[in-house]
């Protein structure tokens, strides 16, 4: 399999765009946070660099302009104003367009963007540089720190320590030094004291570090940029040196003393050493200068090193296809293991059993790990909505506060991806139709700013995702009128509100203009429902007129493998998701006989309705003498399922049913058992629904 | 149909259903299995009332006799399952097709293929692709795509309306 390098760049660029967007959106709230500016700048810089490398020249050129602007922000020349942020967001979209080919460089919109960028950047050109802020915690900008090109030359002292494995990871220190030379006249001193004897020498290890004295007219940021790709792993210190002509050794050392005084750290500890150097310095000047520099660097190096926090956990990119293939293999392994378990069950061979159990444990762990690989925190999905809300609130003239909770809830990656469109739809609906304009809200006694809350949480084997707004709510009367018009309900029927709200999911219903303009909700809600159902999930709507609307999505945790409980009903075997199973009790013959009329069980004082699966599945075989009741729950609803036999736990690889069985609602899928047979997986929430409905009917009759 | 008729011969698998000889396009058939344990799907339509395991895949088992309005007798020692690939709503799907007997893979000469006669057929005419002649016998070539046409299977209005309400 060959990988197109351009594709690799595209993937990388997507990540960078995301980082950039996050940083920009955060910048709106915290315009003074230099960390954010730095993130945005680095993302742009990498886009520019890699883009040019992979032939995306238009993208690289455009990114350059934006980068230049953020460079100024980074140096405190330019403020991260809302204007600039909005402009940068638009520019980011244009960059994305350039990447996927949907936009071109000579687009009039792009030119307009560049012009506006110029306008934002230009007025500050000749303003005197404000007090330079701390950059990256590495110390104050030096005398020439904010100087623009053509400004005064400044002298910088750099200490460049690359990690020992830098050569192995493809960094060429010589190129970095050459880049420094391009900035201005510079003197490079290589420190070779760490080079071992030849026997211990590893050619791929970097033993050297460098000190560079550089005279340049460029700002400090440009020097830092030379190391931008290795910055996170290396030790770099950049200090300004007061300009002076031919200095003698003693003067340099005194001047060093001045620098350490300016820096707060251990000036006292350094003092005696300077005295000592002064004494020794006279003897062998050049070597001692180097030694002094080395010693000083040793003393100083730890300070900046400790300050850099790790920039994120290490990760690698793997194509989704490979993950799917891995998941398939694990699925097959699980099935084979089930067969092995069944074979071994008939043997008395203790060592064989021990090995089988060991394998079972390992496979269970392998399964969990593999599933874990596919799990992604939902934060990656939620974070996309900040931009959507930002744009929508501007477009619609509504003030919206988006809050989220439960971002660390994990979901299968494929589920996350397929959730994007439905969620975008619902968030848009909530803002467009749900929330009122600020003055309407004030008139209704609500705060100006509308609230949209996205939350995610686990509930048993399901993940609940809800979108809540404090807008005007659904108008039950309008929906009722519309439903009557569509012939969905009879004009005089009394349908509970909850059922009415479900009507908005009916295809074609929602596009009715009157309803959407008045009560909100609707365009394409049928699409939302279809998507969620294709993920084996459900959608619920709840609303309090005038106050809020909550749409809740319930999704299964995974689409691949579950722990199941295998049961027998008549001649068929079925799997219940173990996470839904609360307990198993015996259906005593008295309880059986007594409950003929009323299908209730007394479970520690609670009445639990139960379903006889044998009757439900029209099983031809007579009932087993000791039937069991498996109590399953979904949320706070419980129902008992009467089965002939509880066989045991079963690692269930879910195979979806074909379209030919799309009309069968009692089963959510099928699985292959150890003996090669097929067992159906029961859809617990559907069975509970049926159990509850039967219960209702009986209560009424 | 025209692309069929253009070929000189048609390669088919002949199978017995309720005493009649039918044929399906051989290119659709992946493999032919003897009867294996099958799993009933309670609540499914009788045409696709069960499932089976075909090399680790769960595959629906269809009984063409239901669609052709024939009597469904329990499987015998001669019963076979033809594993075929059909397109369901644009998605290629593997399904099992139950047959009372499978005879052979054979070629039917193009000249012997005749358009379905409009009259004189006991079976729904849209399920028949054409009728071939082989010696003195007729072979009825089934239109497999139509056999699994969901619009045909689900199209009945009584299934569509409740879906709307329960939605």
Automatic annotation (TrEMBL), chain B:
Domain CheW-like stretches: 9-153
GO cellular component, one term: cytosol
SUPFAM superfamilies (alphabetical): CheW-like (SSF50341)
InterPro entries linked: CheW, CheW-like_dom_sf, CheW-lke_dom
Record GO biological process: chemotaxis; signal transduction
PANTHER family, per the entry: CHEMOTAXIS PROTEIN CHEW (PTHR22617:SF23), CHEMOTAXIS SENSOR HISTIDINE KINASE-RELATED (PTHR22617)
Annotated protein name in UniProt: Chemotaxis protein CheW
Source organism of the structure: Magnetospirillum aberrantis SpK
